[in-house]
Design brief:
Elements: H1 3-27, H2 43-46, H3 49-52, E1 54-55, E2 60-61, E3 68-74, H4 78-93, E4 113-122, E5 125-137, E6 149-155, E7 160-164, H5 169-179
Antiparallel strand pairs: 1-3, 2-3, 3-4, 4-5, 5-6, 6-7
The chain binds heme C.
């Protein structure tokens, strides 16, 4: 093939690749892409979550770490999460007494999974992907005193940092210490919620 022909062919090929990748990106909103690798041991539970699960929040400033953004996803706990989120807002806004049981919080169904991605805030934008934290609602009796939740946390590369329940000393100090304060909301904070089309 002579040089001009080769040049034209390269231009055509290059533009096709460029165009198709642009179309792909256009089809895929940014929140459906993730840099987090799913840990081997949770592949069956959370595979494909960014595109197929319900995203409960945008990139929100974490209530826990002031220099981090978080995004929360669930497989099927969205309605309960939304209910508990708005119930909490109502109690707070109407200044009702928390102790008098005025909130009608609901518990999550067995099989519900909640995931929280966290990102470092860089120039007030979500930057470096940090951790993936998860809670899986197991069958009754799995960990009765703490709502039968399994907890895990992994790094961006999928390496597990901790996983287990209250019988594991690390989970007790690293996760349950905080989450047990919200037993009335079935141990799930449900702090951030944005209405989403799904
Ligand atoms: C110091 C308190 C604290 C500790 C410790 C903690 N969390 Fe949380 N967690 C929160 C808060 C507050 C939220 C609400 C989201 C936010 O603002 O970051 C949250 C949210 C979550 C969520 C999203 C569902 C929800 O509750 O709204 C998951 C999943 C989660 N945490 C898992 C974990 C795991 C796993 C660990 C242990 C490795 C852990 N958390 C340790 C305070 C804590």
């Amino acid at each position: 093939m002579n040089k001009p022909k080769l040049l034209i062919l390269s231009i055509v090929l290059f533009s096709t690749v460029l165009l198709s990748s642009r179309l792909l990106w256009a089809d895929m909103p940014p929140y459906q892409q993730t840099e987090f690798k799913i840990p081997e041991s949770y592949q069956d539970n959370i595979k494909g979550y960014p595109s197929s699960w319900r995203r409960l929040s945008g990139y929100e400033y974490s209530a826990l770490h002031w220099d981090q953004f978080v995004v929360v996803y669930t497989n099927n706990g969205g309605d309960i999460y939304a209910n508990n989120h708005f119930e909490f807002m109502r109690i707070y806004e109407e200044d009702l007494d928390y102790e008098e049981g005025e909130a009608s919080y609901k518990d999550y169904a067995v099989g519900t999974i909640l995931l929280k991605e966290s990102f470092l805030s860089q120039n007030s934008r979500p930057g470096l992907s940090l951790l993936l934290s998860g809670m899986i609602k197991r069958e009754k009796g799995y960990d009765s005193a703490f709502g039968d939740w399994e907890y895990f946390q992994s790094k961006k590369n999928g390496e597990i940092i901790v996983s287990g329940n209250s019988k594991d000393a690390e989970i007790q100090t690293m996760c349950i210490g905080c989450h047990s304060n919200i037993q009335d909301k079935d141990f799930v904070f449900a702090t951030h919620y944005s209405l989403s089309p799904r």
